[in-house]
């Protein structure tokens, strides 16, 4: 049995990853009111791309830190391109269609990406080499903080702070928030809604690619169906925080990460998903729009 | 003429529907010849098609007719299958006697699970039902009550016995599934024309208006879940007999997604659409078995293309039917 502090460190690490992925779900939901079921698979695509950059040997001459930065950059770019293509081909033709049509298109896109990954990288678990990151571990009051945990916590919080600043203190960010609140009103105020949607399908996948590669580095493995399990958790985090709400996704990610860590530490890990969903159902029954979600009159 | 028909029987207004009412039974009778004409593999495929058609039609009651985003429908299918398997393996019940229990248990679970959540808005309902599915699969995997057989599931379920005679061959099971499918299709037709079916449609299209006319929307939504879960439970029993085994792998979130997609790709509240969707998902892959590894890749592409080209589904229900 680990100490409370240890569970806290583990929880913040996983919570940071959930938050990064949850941001992609919540931003797309904010502007399109669409559950982007393919987002989790895009994130895991980031892990596969990163792994390929790290192990393929194409960039053999580079030192490890440079190689890692390159892996993150290439993963971010490839996943952003994939996200944009996804929007253009699978979602854009359905902007005016019934909402469920877009949901089915998203589910189809998820199957497509997932099985595309399987065909390219094989259905086997892909293992990350163990000599990539320093195995340094710090001891804080009886708990251990490893280098990879520190990297993830710092990385996640820096990215979240940057996104928060971007969304609240720049013109483009204001346009994104305005579109999320009321698309028609935003359009009337001169916001280019199409550009906002395109922007969301770049920012979300970029953050998600980092989240996906963090998952790979933290658990030192990745496999093609990982997108559904981690994507679902991150999506639940977005709902817990209040879907469509950007600070809500960050809060929801951390709450879910901590809750999972303590549940796994003190209850049982074989019921982990059940516990996650129980938390979600409990929160939705008490606050049907999530922790930070606004109580709005239902649109009829 | 057409107008007159409209007034006489609102659910069968156009000429094409009347033709369809003849084509449907004709196809069903033609289907009865499958065991005579086709190879054993196709007899099994026909039986499985009938079972999944029933599950998909039951999913359509909740999703296509009552308009609730249920993405955990495999739970009720699974409860039916596990109920029959447990009663027949641990308590030595003849499998046909387990059918009413499977239906009632699945319907009760549908009502109990849906009662607190039908008030949730569309997408939230969808996520909670995904959660039910995840919890159900974990419960079966973790060997709940020591009876579900864990991750391997339960096997050795015997076929139905009638008058001391065992009907366990694939063609026996095919005929049984095919007959049950006909009964379910008849029930779906009745639902279309009944006040219950109309109330479901009304709630789906305008819940507020339905409520102001005195419809207790919550009760009807729970009823839709119970009815649909009961039918799925019936299909679950057939499934347990067909495979003579049940395991958590048949009732995962992925299976619920496929059922959800069948209804939307085929056409909501459209019986021919749902049957067509089921055929696309379960029969067409059997023709291309050498490309089995591309199956879900092809599903993904097909789902996107159908939604873009026909957002209402391949064979949508006719408009204007209330």
UniProtKB/TrEMBL annotation, chain A:
UniProt KW Transmembrane helix keyword: yes
Membrane topology per record: Multi-pass membrane protein
Chain segments annotated as transmembrane: 12-35, 42-60, 66-86, 98-121, 141-167, 196-219, 274-293
Primary location: membrane
Record localization: Cell membrane
Alphabetically ordered keywords of this record: Amino-acid transport, Cell inner membrane, Cell membrane, Membrane, Transmembrane, Transmembrane helix, Transport
InterPro entries found in the cross-reference section: ABC_transp_permease, BCAA_transport_permease
Similarity section: Belongs to the binding-protein-dependent transport system permease family. LivHM subfamily.
Protein name in the entry: Branched-chain amino acid ABC transporter permease
Automatic annotation (TrEMBL), chain B:
Keyword annotations of the record: Cell membrane, Membrane, Transmembrane, Transmembrane helix
CDD domains: TM_PBP1_LivM_like
TM helices/strands, residue ranges: 20-37, 43-62, 74-91, 97-117, 124-145, 173-191, 222-245, 257-284, 296-315
Name of one Pfam family that matches: BPD_transp_2
Localization in the cell: Cell membrane
Membrane-topology descriptor: Multi-pass membrane protein
Keyword Membrane belongs to the record: yes
Protein name per UniProt: Branched-chain amino acid ABC transporter permease
Organism, scientific name: Castellaniella daejeonensis
